[in-house]
Amino acid sequence: MALKINTEVKTFTFRDGQEITLKEPTLLQINAAHSKNKDDIEVIKSLLIDMTEGELDKDSINALPFGEFLRLSECVKGFVGIDLKD
User: Fold this and answer.
1) Over 80: is that where the pLDDT of 1 sits?
2) CB-CB contact of 18 with 56 (8 Å)
3) What's the whole-model pTM score?
4) Among 2, 6, 83, which Cα is nearest to 43's?
5) What is the pLDDT of residues 45-54, one digit of tens each?
6) Is 64 helix (H, G, I), strand (E, B) or coil?
7) CA distance between the termini of the chain
């Protein structure tokens, strides 16, 4: 019987009041994001797509104001410890 472990879930509220659910990424998702991308911003984008189960896509992430992206990246960092590089 396979082990079933519940993942942590966080709700992120955008400054306009919209909310999105972020699910804790699996080790497989983290590894995939790092293997496809070397840039931390692209890793975070990839993880956000996985963590929202596609509710956020690359186009919607790219259209975010930078401040909102930084706030979202802090949520990702809270799950996996990724830091944006200068």
Assistant:
1) no
2) no
3) 0.84
4) 83
5) 999 999 999 9
6) coil
7) 45
Q: Alpha-carbon distance 33 to 46, whole Å?
A: 6
| Secondary structure string (H, E, C) spanning the chain | CCCCCCCCEEEEECCCCCEEEEECCCHHHHHHHHHHCCCHHHHHHHHHHHHCCCCCCHHHHHCCCHHHHHHHHHHHHHHHCCCCCC
Q: Residue 7, Cα to own-chain centre: how many angstroms? A: 14
Cα-flanking dihedrals φ and ψ of residue 21, to 5°?
-95, 130
pLDDT of residue 23: 96
Q: Does 6 have pLDDT greater than 90?
A: no
| Average pLDDT of the residues in 13-34 | 94
